[in-house]
Amino acid sequence: MRLLLIGGGGREHALAWKLAQSPQVETIYAAPGNPGIALLDKCECIDLPLQELEKLADYAEANCIDLTVVGPEASLVEGIADVFKARGLALFGPSKAAAELEGSKAFSKQLMEKYGIPTAFFKVCEDIETAKAYIKEKGAPIVVKADGLAAGKGVVVAITEAEAFAAVDDMMGDLKFGGAGARVVLEEFMEGEEASLLAFTDGDTIVSMIAAQDHKRINDNDEGPNTGGMGTYAPAPVMTDILRLKAVEKVLKPTIAAMKAEGRPYQGCLYAGLMINGDDIKVVEFNCRFGDPETQVIMPLLDGDLAEIMLCCATGTLAQADIGWYDKAAVCVVMASGGYPGSYKQGLPISGLEETAAREDVVVFHAGTKCADGQIVTAGGRVLGVTAVGKNIREAKDKAYEVAGKISFADAHYRKDIAWRALKK
User: Fold this and answer.
1) Which of 142, 194, 363, 392 is the most exposed place for a label (fewest CB within 10 A)?
2) Residue 240 DSSP code
3) Whole-model pTM above 0.70?
4) Where are the alpha helices (DSSP H) in 104-252?
5) Kindly report the CA angle at 300 between 202 and 366, in degrees rounded to 5?
6) Angle 406-365-225 (CA atoms, 0-180°, nearest 5)?
7) How far apart are CA 348 and CA 192, in angstroms?
């Protein structure tokens, strides 16, 4: 198989790493990829215009690509799957209509309400006055969400009404997230512990993955501003086997059935962010793709041929796929640029990567790096995801931090308490 992989972050590095292990895979062309992907066997990084979907399809046709795997949500929401399907090209990922499950918070919440899928109470607001009136009616804490894609930053958990008003002004008045915040969803603040449950689906068959849990806050003790994720681990103890089965029956299966009933059949990876409070499960959000950095801990635990599984999803034959999970644990520690998620310097040399590359139980996934003058340097807020596998969470965590301590770049920052919830349990 010849694969085309769209994207160039830590998630895509983890997918490329797992895909390259398939005996069926001959070559993986990553667009644009990153220096970590470039070092993998079978992988080649290529420069393609990711916003020009027809040109991507042209490349797939010209290079006899058997399957295209899409990492970023923006490409899916823009309709890359539809462009490829029109050409008869196999692609792992939902159609534009199905990707609206992530592309519009309003659509997602209204779908859940219509089909009885458990979630928080909410209101969709088209103007600032309506939004502020609803905040006054419900009080705080309350959650303010930009309706569209905002790179994971369009959610504000407002502890006071003043914070909620400010978030509405930022999103709807100042258009902090562009058109994505022109409409907002106001949502009940949910108590509990959040976990991520991803699933493979071909539109009918659903196979859930191992549950993961990430750390959004920049600093230890879950303090500081939210980020795209400072680390993650799997399996997440809060998602017991019983709760996972409950989530499949109450959330994943009804959602796939609802999308089919709406004329938006969903295939690819369905990501459910779930709030767990005792035996109660509610949906926080849906994503239409693999999570980042959840993918970095899920892929090392997958006992199966990822390329074959993805092709089965794309061709409606997932029931035939052989999917299992290793009885181990994985922990990912994200090394970020100093100043992230605010402003930060780029182009800083990274040392220690070659010395840690030989470890079989630890993989350093590149998230924000580039090559400059023959050296790998920083090129983003989240730079590396140091991921280790162990017989349990504690062993995996110790390995990850051991390797993270051997890698350095100026002003590097990473949390020292990844997986604290799991270890506390």
Assistant:
1) 392
2) -
3) yes
4) 105-115, 128-138, 161-168, 241-247
5) 100
6) 85
7) 39
